[in-house]
Amino acid sequence: MDTLQGAVAVVTGGASGIGRSTAHSLARRGAHILVADIDAPAAQTVVDELASYGADALTVRCDVTADTAFEELKASALDRFGRVDLVMNNVGALTRGRPDRIPVEEWQRVIDINLMSVVRSNAVFVPYFLQQGRGHIVNTASIAGLYTYSYDRLPYAASKAALVQLSEGLRAYLRPRGIGVTLLCPGPVRTNIDAARLPCFGPVVATRGPGEEFAVLPADTVGEQVAQAVLTDTFMVLTHERVRDVLVDRASDWNAFMGRQTAALAEE
Ligand SMILES: NC(=O)c1ccc[n+]([C@@H]2O[C@H](COP(=O)([O-])OP(=O)(O)OC[C@H]3O[C@@H](n4cnc5c(N)ncnc54)[C@H](O)[C@@H]3O)[C@@H](O)[C@H]2O)c1
To answer: What domain range includes position 167?
Structure first.
């Protein structure tokens, strides 16, 4: 997308954290925003904030697990703005516990929010963008979907890994058809998501992040990274450059890498 001036963006999970900051970064560049979130009052606060850029913004309360959620978002955006240029699929749910203690129902809940919501979004917006001949999709995954630094959140990591594959395939399919796909893989970012505050299945496990070498970024930094990626049609956004070294290390000897990760986790 050459410019965000006058573009129309739908941001799910736009009321907080990375979604809110991305809404700000897009609106600062002239985009109109539909803030979609299950928390309607917080979404309205973001809409009010966006007015300072002169952005036309609208909130729609939505639960991304509902079958009709994305049809309703599209209809609301078309009704207000006349078109959609960008969709950011950004809602994610974290869970934690030992792999043998997380119930199947919890797996289903997390996969429904993290993965199937994006499937539902694509079912609505991919045909729409194809017909329009342009558009851009941003999917928020995580470095937890790129490599294993913990075993305390398997449904989360597995669903984010699935988003990586889904986004790569979509990029290959849609790029020749004039539609961009960006995959955001954040490391630690200061938002309202907090693993330590979540209930834990089974005995409490220490919440393990990717390591102290991964600084916790302000969400605003990530919002700017996303806006730049959309403007430059960049596929991968790694908020923390250091993750490249980890992935190179793993690719050079995957078995040795897993041996080191297993030993490090066993020590805790
Ligand atoms: N913060 C991090 O360190 C980090 C790291 C990697 C990936 N991520 C990913 O970034 C994304 C955004 O997370 P965040 O850290 O900004 O969290 P956040 O909690 O600050 O924001 C999440 C937003 O999603 C909304 N939401 C939750 N369930 C919803 C539903 N069913 N339907 C609609 N809206 C819903 C919440 O109300 C909230 O406004 C998630 O996909 C998360 O997995 C975050």
So the answer is: 8-242
